[in-house]
Amino acid sequence: MKLYSYFRSSAAYRVRIALNLKGLAYETVAVHLLKDGGQQLSDGYRQLNPTALVPTLADGDWAVGQSMAILEYLEETHPEPALLPAGARARARVRAIAQFIACDIHPLNNLRVLKYLKHTLEADEEARNAWYRHWVGQGLAAVETMLAGHPDTGRYCHGAQPTFADLFLVPQVANARRYDCDLSAMPTVLRIDAACNELAAFRQAAPGNQPDSEG
Amino acid sequence: MKLYSYFRSSAAYRVRIALNLKGLAYETVAVHLLKDGGQQLSDGYRQLNPTALVPTLADGDWAVGQSMAILEYLEETHPEPALLPAGARARARVRAIAQFIACDIHPLNNLRVLKYLKHTLEADEEARNAWYRHWVGQGLAAVETMLAGHPDTGRYCHGAQPTFADLFLVPQVANARRYDCDLSAMPTVLRIDAACNELAAFRQAAPGNQPDSEG
Q: Are A144 and A185 in contact (CB under 8 A)?
């Protein structure tokens, strides 16, 4: 399998963790979001993925984008170790945490959105950083509430094994740190992030450990 | 089951279509996003759903948010009629279309984001409408490319039966029309939207047909 990835993309980061946890070998194809006016916007990449977003997973001559769709695909085709818990309600809880991060935190702070704020709305750096921290702060505070004190929260977001929820949480926390967001009121989020990062599968998926990493 | 819903919420609209297609009876609990300073922000609603977003599906004393998590839950607990196709790759394609709309079009145009643009970034109505049309236009153009000419596109986004992809497409098209977005370059999107709206399950889920509708 090939993963079209950018080291800093948190959506690609989620998939890298899943591939590592499942022990699946893959080749990284670097798509630099800033070079050449954005390599994801090239005709070649758009043929593979018309949305011009990373990541894309290619399996032979077949390819699919969107991190959550890729994770569900990997879960169906390589079910062990499971990254979704047993039971429809437990799976719904895990997917809801993951989806909230995927839909309602991350896309607001995507590179293309920050570019629009800068170039079209002429928001200065201070306003853009405030925007970023607003959505991350509000979003991760809600995640903290979903996790803290919930009977199913364990060492990880759900129980004693990593699930999709952790795969979305850890890259989002990494982004938050990069933008100096205040995470002091989110002890459960921080505890789970630390537990995940004790696992090599998470650490090896981090932006700093990618072949296209710039540090 | 109870669906905490706002008639204009396109995320709630997706779930309403699924419940109708699967023939599941449910009670609508209206959560007015504009009244009382936003009923979704009340302590009561936040206890049910800490993200303060609609929809929430309640099944007895259990509840879950996030439309995609709810749809996967309904698919697992009420598998007929199936809203995901057979085959892992086909399901990945359907989920990728749905996720792209869920993550990369819709959240950028959410009410809370438009409010931030207005009140914090002081973007005027023209700038806010341009923002809305930018993301919808770019997003649905990518959806058009994913659908047009793809061998698996049929009467609906994938084959001859509605799938998750259609449940995300139709509410997004309705939003686009509400904001006078130009859809003339998206004939496949429009054809599939029309096919879906021939089904009562889609029509009955539309904003204008909800108990809390304001027209």
A: yes
In whole angstroms, what is the distance from residue B49 CA to residue B53 CA?
7
Question: Does B131 contact A146 at a Cβ distance shorter than 8 Å?
Answer: no
Q: Which among B104, B110, B147, B157 is the top mutation candidate for probing chain A, defined by the most A β-carbons within 10 Å of its own β-carbon?
A: B104
In this complex, do B134 and A116 lie within 8 Å of one another by their Cβ atoms?
yes
Judge whether A157 and A163 are in contact, CB under 8 Å.
yes
Give pLDDT tens digits for B91-135: 999 999 999 999 999 999 988 899 999 999 999 999 999 999 999
How many CB contacts within 8 angstroms connect chain A with chain B? Answer: 132
Please tell me the CATH superfamily of domain A2-81, with its number: Glutaredoxin (3.40.30.10)
Domain range annotation of chain A: 2-81, 88-202
A-proximal residues of B, 24-83, CB under 8 Å: 46, 50-53, 62, 64-70, 72-73, 76-77
Our measurement of the distance from residue B209's CA atom to the centroid of its chain's CA atoms, rounded to an integer in Å, reads: 15
CA angle A56, A58, A60 (to 5 degrees): 170
Query: For A96, which of B65, B76, B130 is closest by C-beta distance?
Result: B65
Q: What is the pLDDT of residues B152-195, one digit of tens each?
A: 999 999 999 999 999 999 999 999 999 999 999 999 999 999 99
Beta bridge partners of B63: B58
Q: What is the pLDDT of residue A154?
A: 98
Helices (H), A43-87: 43-48, 67-77
Annotate A126-149 with DSSP letters as a single string: HHHHHHHHHHHHHHHHHHHHHHTT
- Cα torsion angle, B81, B76, B159, B171, sign: positive
A88-202: CATH architecture:
Up-down Bundle (1.20)
- As for the ipTM of the complex, it is 0.97
Helices (H) and strands (E) in chain A, counts: 9, 4
CB proximity A206 to B under 8 Å: no
